[in-house]
Amino acid sequence: MSPENQPDGGAPTDSLTVTDNRTGQTFELPITDGTVRAMDFRQMKADADDFGLMTYDPAFTNTASCRSAVTFIDGDAGVLEYRGYPIEQLAEKSTYLEVAYLLVYGELPTQPELDEWTHHVTMHTFVHENVKEFVGGFRHDAHPMGMLLGSVGALSTFYPDANEISDPENRLIQAVRLIAKMPTLAAFAFRHTRGQPLVYPDNDLRYPGNFLGMLYKMTELKYEPDPRLERALDILFILHADHEQNCSTNAVRAVGSSQVDPYSAVAAGIGALYGPLHGGANEAVLRMLRRVGTKEDIPAFMKGVKEGDERLMGFGHRVYKNYDPRAKIIKGATEDVFAVTGKNPLLEIATEMEKIALEDEYFVSRKLYPNVDFYSGLIYEALGLPVEMFPVMFAIPRTSGWISQWLEMVVDKEQKIARPRQIYTGARSRDYTEIASR
Ligand code: SDX
């Protein structure tokens, strides 16, 4: 509102003037950071007995749950920054472990800081030998994401002091353990499904190379990762590290708000990421591309999407109403990987689907663009991973984002146990009836 049409002609005030037409009362609600506080509506009552107004926002489509300095996204402009650094620069110039440090500490490390951080993470890649017992207890065809969910939750039993979350030192050692052990647990799950012996971490290797070694090492004395594949994994891990208040981060924050240990909170995040609308989408994309099968079959599939019988997995986003910047970078990385592994024939179908969708009114009008999951699976498949491992590939790097958001939430004075309200739609005050008379 410009000054001249302010009620008293004064300077514009960052506030809402709300009139409750049930009572004629008017309220001034301050606007801060582009938001009004939901609790400011509680004072608006129809009568003295009224509880007061609540806001109703299923799936939190227009609700800020926290203040955060970790990740910035501009969905309309397709901008993604970690601690203010553009994702394009980090993907080109950084490594995953350096980005994990940036997310956790808020600043890029100096060389000594990076060396110490890398040593710290490397020294925590092993898991307790007992972990092998329960990984071995899963069925041969257990989904690796379910195994990861169980394994990470179980880690809390190996570190009972992890619930001392008021101790900053303790918080940090648990953060390092989670970042360090996630690839080990992920690789254990993969090897179990293959009936292959588990491979211990090789602390001479860099983070992505060590993970490749735990996945693929067989009888060779020393696994030597292909540097081009290692670099591609580093980039994929950087791109998946954090994404502000997405579904799984919301789960980590909500569960963490009960002051439980971070292993239990991260296990909740893995559960949320497992879903096909979230981290499970990369698995669903590959299944979709295989089902379409040929470029000639794309139009029929797209027709099914527009008729609501299908969903174009890997497309659309709650925040991005423009091209997901990560999808662009991943698409570029496919060339580097295919130079080593050979081209994935499904890439042609994917690029043709993207071309058709970007020209089709149905998708354009709904601002549906490729998201991070549309191309990533093509790389994972080229690396020899089964589709069931794709969400696991998402969970590994997202651990640094989840733990950074958890660290921020734990010390946020505005936060307390997350406990939303509801609109009650059920029956009231019914008397119990004996079964004979029901
Ligand atoms: C991730 O939040 C994050 O930041 C997540 C993530 C991260 O890094 O953490 O970015 C990672 O989860 C990426 C998203 C991966 N999921 C998928 O690719 C699954 C397919 N996409 C969707 O189902 C959907 O786009 C969501 C879940 C991603 C977003 O859903 P919204 O914001 O709730 O949007 P919506 O479902 O309300 O869709 C709006 C309209 C609807 O049409 P109408 O009912 O208005 O006619 O767009 C349609 C939807 O039907 N639509 C799609 C579609 N996505 C939305 N139609 C066909 N195919 C799709 N993929």
Describe this structure in words.
By secondary structure, the chain is mainly alpha-helical. The protein contains 17 helices and five strands. The chain has helices spanning 87-93, 96-105, 111-122, 130-136, 144-158, 168-194, 207-216, 227-239, 247-256, 262-273, 281-292, 298-306, 325-341, 346-359, 361-365, 373-382, 390-410; strands at residues 15-20, 25-30, 71-74, 79-82, 85-86. Strands 3-4-5 form a three-stranded antiparallel β-sheet. Strands 1-2 form a two-stranded antiparallel ribbon. Helix 1 (87-93) runs antiparallel to helix 8 (227-239). The longest helix is centred in the middle third of the chain and has 27 residues, at 168-194. It is globular, with a radius of gyration of 25 Å. The protein starts with 14 loop residues before the first strand and ends in a 28-residue tail after the last helix. S-citryldethia Coenzyme A (SDX) binds at residues 243, 246-247, 277-278, 281, 305, 311-319, 366, 368, 371-373.
Topology:
Layout: E1 15-20, E2 25-30, E3 71-74, E4 79-82, E5 85-86, H1 87-93, H2 96-105, H3 111-122, H4 130-136, H5 144-158, H6 168-194, H7 207-216, H8 227-239, H9 247-256, H10 262-273, H11 281-292, H12 298-306, H13 325-341, H14 346-359, H15 361-365, H16 373-382, H17 390-410
Helix pairs in contact: 1-8, 2-8, 2-17, 5-6, 5-10, 6-7, 6-17, 7-8, 8-13, 8-17, 9-10, 9-17, 10-17, 11-16, 13-16
S-citryldethia Coenzyme A binds at residues 243, 246-247, 277-278, 281, 305, 311-319, 366, 368, 371-373.
